[in-house]
């Protein structure tokens, strides 16, 4: 049996109705992946609000460890979102696997920005997963807590004139945080992962995954030391967004 077939079988047997009104895995709506002309047909999971499709899986050696990389596409009300998953080791057997849901930060992750702690958190998560020998990194395209790259740069401009990260988003007409974590929850369900140890400082993320039917058995802090350029940003996240940033 192909690894991809196994993933589908596991998903089929574990699907439940999520509390976030997604109905995942309803009988008859899945189209199991199969091969034709040497190409793996993507799986499609249709729900009332989200259609999740695994489009690719490949070998992924990295400087943190030797992962598998998986590509997912989610479509909600005609809007498409992509997500990438790095998977290491056996993720479905006990104890619950270590999971990091990381929102894309091009400026931090790629351009090494020190306005935020995103890249440091990403590296800490990958190091932690590698150290345990198993785990998942779900990388969501939710730049700027969901407002998009260019709006994030507009928010930076406002911050340069005195706004904090929450005020800047609000001045642009957005909520402080637009992320709902529906797609990460659907991906975990797809992979047959029902219980996780979540690496996060964000109580809202934990609640969202729990609401979507993923049991968070433990929160693992994802703390990096503040530096001069991230101090105000992290203070705002702690005071206004309830992030748990004190050392434990
Ligand atoms: Zn960032």
Report on this structure:
By secondary structure, the protein is of the alpha/beta class. It folds into 2 domains: 3-142 and 179-241, Rossmann fold (3-Layer(aba) Sandwich), CATH 3.40.50; 149-177, no CATH class. The chain has helices spanning 3-14, 106-110, 118-132, 149-160, 165-171, 182-190, 203-211, 231-241, and strands spanning 35-36, 39-40, 43-46, 51-61, 66-76, 79-88, 97-103, 135-140, 195-199, 215-220. The strands form 2 sheets. The protein has an 8-stranded mixed beta sheet, sandwiched between helices. A two-stranded antiparallel sheet has the order 1-2. Helix 4 crosses helix 5 (165-171). It is globular. The structure holds zinc ion.
Question: Share of helix among residues?
Answer: 25-40%
Count the strands? 10
Tally of structural domains: 2
Proportion of residues in β-strands = 25-35%
Task: Strand order, main sheet: write it out.
Answer: 3-4-5-6-8-7-9-10
- Largest sheet at a glance? 8 strands, mixed
Essential attributes:
single chain, two-stranded antiparallel sheet, alpha/beta, binds zinc ion, 248 residues, globular, 8-stranded mixed β-sheet
Topology at a glance:
Layout: H1 3-14, E1 35-36, E2 39-40, E3 43-46, E4 51-61, E5 66-76, E6 79-88, E7 97-103, H2 106-110, H3 118-132, E8 135-140, H4 149-160, H5 165-171, H6 182-190, E9 195-199, H7 203-211, E10 215-220, H8 231-241
Parallel strand pairs: 7-8, 7-9, 9-10
Antiparallel strand pairs: 1-2, 3-4, 4-5, 5-6, 6-8
Helix pairs in contact: 4-5
The chain binds zinc ion.
Brief rundown of the structure:
The protein has 248 residues and is of the alpha/beta class.
């Amino acid at each position: 049996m192909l690894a991809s077939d196994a993933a589908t079988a596991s998903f089929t047997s574990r699907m439940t109705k999520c509390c976030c009104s997604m109905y995942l895995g309803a009988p008859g709506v899945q189209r199991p992946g199969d091969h034709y002309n040497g190409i793996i047909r993507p799986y499609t999971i249709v729900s009332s609000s989200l259609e999740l499709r695994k489009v690719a899986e490949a070998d992924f050696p990295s400087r943190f460890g030797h992962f598998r990389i998986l590509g997912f596409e989610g479509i909600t009300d005609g809007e498409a979102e992509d997500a990438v998953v790095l998977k290491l080791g056996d993720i479905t057997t006990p104890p619950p696997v270590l999971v990091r849901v990381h929102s894309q930060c091009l400026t931090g992750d790629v351009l090494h920005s020190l306005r935020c702690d995103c890249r440091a958190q990403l590296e800490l998560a990958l190091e932690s997963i590698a150290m345990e020998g198993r785990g998942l990194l779900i990388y969501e395209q939710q730049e700027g807590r969901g407002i998009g790259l260019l709006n994030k740069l507009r928010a930076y401009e406002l911050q340069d004139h005195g706004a904090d990260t929450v005020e800047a988003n609000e001045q642009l007409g957005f909520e402080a945080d637009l992320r709902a974590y529906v797609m990460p929850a659907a991906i975990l369900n797809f992979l047959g992962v029902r219980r996780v140890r979540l690496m996060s400082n964000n109580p809202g993320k934990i609640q969202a995954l729990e609401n979507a039917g993923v049991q968070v058995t433990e929160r693992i802090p994802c703390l990096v030391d503040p530096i001069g350029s991230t101090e105000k940003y992290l203070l705002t996240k702690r005071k206004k967004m309830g992030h748990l940033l004190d050392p434990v």
